Amino acid sequence: MSAQNKAGLDALLTPEESVVVLIDHQPFQFANLNSHEPTMVVNNVVGLAKAAKVYEVPTILTTVLEDRGGFIIQGLQEVFPEQKPIDRTFINTWEDQRVVDAVKATGRKKLILAGLWTEICLAMPAIQAAGEGFDVFAVTDASGSGSKEGHDMAVRRMVQAGVVPITWMAVLGEWQRDWAREKTVPGAAEVQSQHGGATGVAFAWETQLLGARAGGGA
């Protein structure tokens, strides 16, 4: 990310500028996931995908060696049932021209990535794309590694290359930005209630209280 884009309002995400690539959330990759509780990564990446759909952000699914590593997890495929993930042999997603072309076809420069594993399938394309003029955001809680050290060192390395670490709920918050944008509020609320954990429960409670007030209840 260029120096002028690291701070200020323009450094934040908008749906209109964003494109998402979700990399290799497959059974083989989850089998050795030890940096996070695997169910949390599943929850978070599906939440991110659903948020992208709410805000109409182009989202590209990828797998590596699908016949050996398995199909992309069902929760992700169900968000985009019409999409066939791009299946690669390249370890580095950004070396597969089909993925690069799909991203460039959107005309968007704020590239949001999540993948398994962090130090390989996320860090490699993030670092390369950052060097090619994209503003790259790595969704750290929708990604993971075989070890906590592997994940942490990868995040440090990406930061040194100008990549911005972010969580999936922060992405949703920046896309929404203003609760007066009522068109996306119901979708955002649904995603938060399904995948936001305690935050989602609290948000549902707040919505209930606001609804009661609007209806004249206690």
From TrEMBL:
Keywords of the record, alphabetical order, are:
Hydrolase
**Which residues are in the Isochorismatase-like domain?**
19-168
* A Pfam short name: Isochorismatase
UniProt-listed SUPFAM superfamilies: Isochorismatase-like hydrolases
Which Gene Ontology terms cover its molecular function? Answer: hydrolase activity
| Source superkingdom | Bacteria
Protein name per the record = Hydrolase
